[in-house]
Amino acid sequence: MIILFTIITFFSTLAGGLFALRFKDKLHLVLGFSAGAVIGTVFFELLPESLSLGIKYISRDFILVLTGVGFFIYMLLDKMSLLHSSTKDKHTHNHGDIGAGSLSLHSFFDGIAIGLSFQISKPIGIIIALAVIVHDFSDGLNTVSIVLKNKGDSNRAFKWLLVDSIAPVIGVVSTQFFILSPQAFVIVLSLFSGFFLYIGASDLLPESQFEHPSLLTTFITIAGAATIYMATHILAT
User: Fold this and answer.
1) What is the b/e burial string over 4-17, where b = at least 16 CB atoms within 10 angstroms of the residue's CB?
2) pLDDT of res. 55
3) Taking a C-beta distance cutoff of 8 angstroms, is the pair 132, 110 a contact?
4) Are residues 163 and 100 in contact, defined by beta-carbon separation less than 8 angstroms?
5) Cα(23)–Cα(67) distance, rounded to whole angstroms?
6) I need a surface site. Which of 46, 82, 120, 196 has the fewest CB within 10 A?
7) Residue 96 predicted with pLDDT over 80
8) Torsion angle (degrees, nearest 10) of CA 166, 90, 67, 34
């Protein structure tokens, strides 16, 4: 059964990215949805999961500190890519690659979450897998959106989409060879909360409103967050 869920995660991510490529002329709406989805992932999935798991091993305050550290690490990576770029276009491409790479790494840990949850029990594995599959559609959409937003072309976006799609598959397979300690998993989730908060709030959200500020874009952003909420709270119960 875990093999079936692994295959579905690949196609769910791919479908989300292809959707973004198909409607890239409406990129501001796609970016708005992506911003809501990324920020929703932080508040409705990554951070609550970090607090829930981490309270057994480390303090809540330290988890929040790690989230802040993740935010500023990503900010530094963003600014460093600017300082080491000779042109604005090169910087935006680097920024898009950093964002897409971070999202792909998150997808890799999605796969690890599926693999480890099935090690705990089959019912828990199914619940986690279903939640991941639903929000992997948004992962694919987000990956394409951030590349296109940073002046990457469709080919560049599609290459990153393939990386993001295969990442959870590799994550599931990797759990057959090692076991990530609960403490390490909590640290990773906390840092990624900060990464995604920066991507959503400081990058995607302002960009979605830059040229097309409207209530529609705002509602689309809320819809993106609501989609993640449903995936992580309603479908997973």
Assistant:
1) ebbebbbebbbebb
2) 85
3) yes
4) yes
5) 33
6) 120
7) no
8) -60
Query: Is 17 within 8 Å of 201 (Cβ atoms)?
Result: no
Output the six-digit token pair for 167.
Answer: 């990442």
Contact 13, 140 (CB under 8 A): yes
- Crossing angle of helices 60-83 and 88-120, rounded to 10°: 150
Residue range 136-165: mean pLDDT, rounded: 86
pLDDT tens string 172-185: 999 888 777 778 87
- Which pTM does this prediction carry? 0.69
Amino acid (one-letter) located at 190: S
**Contacts for 128 with CB less than 8 Å, ≥ 6 apart:** 113, 114, 117, 236
- Own/partner contacts of 76-81, CB < 8 Å, gap of 24 or more, are 78/198, 78/203
Q: Is the pLDDT of residue 214 over 70?
A: yes
Spans of all domains in the chain: 2-17+31-234
Q: For residue 1, with 0-12 CB atoms within 10 Å meaning exposed, 13-18 middle and 19 or more buried, which class applies?
A: exposed
Q: Quick one: 88 exposed, middle or buried, by C-beta within 10 A (0-12, 13-18, 19+)?
A: exposed
